[in-house]
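G.,

No rush on this.
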Amino acid sequence: MEPSAAPLDATPDPAIVQPPGVNPPVPPREQQQEQLRIGESGQFSEGLEDRGLLESSTRLKPHEAQSYRKKALWVSWVSIIVTLALAVAAFTVSVMRYSASSFGFAFDATLDVLSSAIVLWRYSNAAAVHSAHREYIACVILGVIFLLSSICIVIKAIHDLAKKEFPEVDDFLYSVSVLSGILCTVLAVIKFMLGKVLTSRALITDGFNSLVGGIMGFSILLSAEVFKHNSSVWYLDGSIGVLIGLTIFAYGVKLLIDMVPRVRQTRHYEMFE
């Protein structure tokens, strides 16, 4: 005998009619709990800033924080020595070869020296490794330096474009370009990694500046090579200088907009200074 058919008005089993690959809806209680956890996480992060601390204070143990602080100091010292030597070489290339990109890189290398010096100050006090106030002050100083240096880079590049300065190409220019591009890029990667661990915007900004230096180093090589094969593209060198100057300016403005209010918010928390 055949089994009787199910009644037509019977309610289907939800487990059967659920389309494959579609997750079941989240119950209201679980959804509320998830939103509560997200809200508590955001409030906890804001609470740290309200107490003048960075997020790294909850991620790192005291000995780990001090270890990364010392690494940041070592990287800053190495960056100062390397970029100072590259700045001297690039300024020499700029004067001898009329290269706006070389001048831009030399100025950026000088900026890198200053930004690394600021990071040295930022982490010179072992007790202030998690100090938000000290961090934000360092970022504001970096923002001001970015604005001033970007103006000088753009003015020099526009001046060379207006006078139609043609860059000269030789082995010295190539050597400086390749060396600066590689070294600055390596320094940038290390600074980004340390900045992420220490949740340090100052270190990340220093890394951004080193990255710009690496790009400018390779851009010198690019513009020189293009000019060597096609002298009609003489404006490429100056155009790259203008573009990089405007990039630094925009980053400096963004940094000041973000950090000036935070300096005011944490000015009462200088317990680590």
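When you get to it, here's the other one too:
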Amino acid sequence: MSDEGNMEDEARPTLLARQAARPSRQVFARHESSKANDALKAARKAKDKLQKDWQGPVLTYEQVKPKTLSPSADAYLIDVREPDEVMQGSIPSSVNLPLSVLANSLHLTPQAFKAQHGFEKPGKQQEVVFYCRSGMRSASACDIARRNGYMNILNYEGSWLEWTSREGGSKGSTA
């Protein structure tokens, strides 16, 4: 029995020596894995950059106020709040185009757009200023318009809340 025991003891160091002498595949796999992870991270970052909401130029109250005093046919002030919100009041000279229908409406023909919303469809080069209650939905509206080919898009970030506070509680026009 002692001879068999010696053979096992002699075999073990040889097996351990062979395992130690072999290059570890885990090190290689981890190296490849980190390269794959870096490539995946880079691809995700590029995709996120493409899909990131576009931040349009922001207007202040002082820049919007003159547009309400002398409206232009070349520019639109669009309220993207829902009709029940607009019933509380709106900025003078604005038109309502709820965010919930904006994307589909921008795909309508000019005739269908006017029939549905009661005003001419903005041209892709016309100035379009979006506002909402607090500036969040108007930022989304800017992004939607840009993705639909509109180039001259502005966001009144202060929106309805700033307008009413600056106008001394005046509700503007009522829709």
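The mean pLDDT is 82. The beta strands are 58-59, 75-79, 95-96, 127-131, 153-156.

Enjoy the weekend,
O.
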